[in-house]
Amino acid sequence: MMVALLAFGIGQAAWAEDVSDLDKLIQNAKQGSVPAQSSLGAIYLFREDYASATYWLRKAAEQGQQTAQKNLGLLYYNGVGVNQDYEEALKWFRKSAEQGYAQAQYNLGWMYANGQGVRQDDAQAVQWYRKAAEQGHVDAQYNLGVMYYDGQGVRQDDAQAVQWYRKAAEQGDAEAQYNLGVMYTQGQGVRQNLVIAKEWYGKACDNGSQQGCDNYRELNQTGY
Asked: Is residue 143 within 8 Å of 109, Cβ to Cβ?
């Protein structure tokens, strides 16, 4: 899955369940408050009232609100409340991404990487993944590591792959932790170190990676 549909933040989701004065928020939205329109759209997303969510998100998005633009893009991407339309999703993700919204930048990178709504273009995917990765977006960091490892859209570079895998791994991404273990096992982009490899396999295992568990046990049995 590229993104969760309700990708507007855990804190906001929790707040959406405890709105003490929804009528006031609706009133502010109707009076033209863009933040209120965006928040109301997010609340309706949370409540799975997609028609209302689309209505309010579009109002805020058309006035340049980046979170609303990203969420409206998600509706079009997933075909929820609207007909699925990758080109329309791409349009709204781009508007949000160009304002610096990391999740939208990641989504845009994904669409370029997979040729959804646009001609497949690894170089563009790398560009948008990098923008999101530099803001700490864990999935973008992992995907950027993969692009460097495979030489997709960028010159193949194991050291850069290690760098981005590490950033994602340090945020708890199991696949990045496993891949980092592999890099240390093979001595790719980093000096071979089976002790450190075992540490990363262990972290990956703890986060649900079966391959991480298997490799951890294998190294453990050999005395590392």
From this structure: yes
